[in-house]
Write a structure and sequence with these properties.
By secondary structure, the chain is an alpha+beta fold. Helix content is about 50%, strand content about 20%. The strands form 2 sheets. A 5-stranded antiparallel β-sheet has the order 3-4-5-6-7, with helices on one face. The chain has a two-stranded antiparallel sheet with strand order 1-2. The protein is flat, with a radius of gyration of 27 Å. The two termini are about 40 Å apart.
Length: about 290
């Protein structure tokens, strides 16, 4: 493909290639999946990006072509979804919602700090436990307990399988990554896990307010009116207006998770209640 081609020409080039290879529009995606190669996923991503550089006349022209239209519809759909996700991700930078989002993040900060401390304690406990066990039972017994058997064919003389125990899978897992690692490594890993946890939980605030804004584009004047800490998390109450009508927004934050602290997270539930009728007009799950 020539570098001096216009964005429209590039999209046509890729679409024609997809048609020749009999790649169906509904099989396209932005990531590799079953039936979709990495090359085609990359080309799809390029085509979606080129839409911003194309003028509407060229887009309409391609949509009027029966061969190009199905592919263009898919590209446009992907572009809209990417834009929607980008708006959700950056909603905390919106002048309309930045204050309420910042307030909510400050309110959940104490719970985040608590969980970060538990992540730290759990990591050090795991590090001490696995390394102590490794020293006590020895390398071979440790491999027998946690290792995976690898096969290297069969012995030519006896026909017996040639095997070797490996800890490679185990050391790529948590807490196996701490085996025979230095304290500095553990400290860096803990910091990384704590930061990732905070980023994820703050991201859920953005997502919750973003979903609310998607459901009610006209929502305005959002304010935090009450915060209550319970054994299961934090309950928020907010006031707002939807098309001029006052509403109350009850937001519940509960713990959810699995068998260890790494899987614990805050789960958001939101209910929009009409002040006049006292009826719930929407229930929104934040994550």
């Amino acid at each position: 493909m020539a570098n001096n081609m216009t964005p429209t020409q590039k999209v046509k080039y890729y679409v024609e290639g997809m048609i020749k290879r009999r790649i169906r529009p509904y099989d396209l995606g932005l990531r590799v999946k079953r039936g979709l190669s990495s090359a085609t996923a990359y080309q799809t991503k390029l085509c979606v990006g080129y839409l911003d550089e194309m003028n509407q006349k060229d887009i309409d022209s391609m949509l009027s072509n029966e061969h190009y239209k199905p592919y263009m519809n898919v590209f446009i759909s992907f572009a809209k979804e990417l834009k929607r996700k980008e708006n959700l991700k950056n909603i905390d930078k919106s002048s309309k919602f930045e204050d309420i989002i910042e307030t909510l993040k400050k309110e959940i900060k104490p719970i985040i700090v608590e969980q970060q401390e538990k992540i730290k304690d759990h990591a050090w406990s795991s590090w001490k436990k696995i390394n102590k066990e490794y020293e006590e039972i020895g390398e071979e017994s440790f491999k027998e307990k946690y290792g995976r058997k690898l096969y290297f064919g069969r012995n030519r003389n006896t026909g017996e399988p040639i095997t070797r125990l490996s800890l490679s899978d185990y050391t790529r897992s948590y807490p196996g990554c701490y085996l025979r690692m230095s304290e500095k490594f553990v400290e860096r890993d803990i910091k990384s896990r704590q930061e990732a946890y905070q980023t994820a939980e703050y991201g859920k605030v953005n997502k919750l307010i973003g979903k609310l804004a998607e459901r009610y584009p006209s929502i305005d004047d959002m304010k935090l009116t009450n915060t209550d800490r319970s054994v299961s998390g934090i309950e928020f109450t907010m006031s707002a207006k939807i098309e001029g009508s006052p509403v109350r927004i009850d937001t519940t934050t509960i713990y959810a998770g699995g068998y260890n602290i790494q899987r614990l997270h805050l789960k958001w539930l939101l209910h929009v209640i009409d002040i006049k009728t006292r009826k719930t007009i929407a229930s929104i799950r934040g994550n």
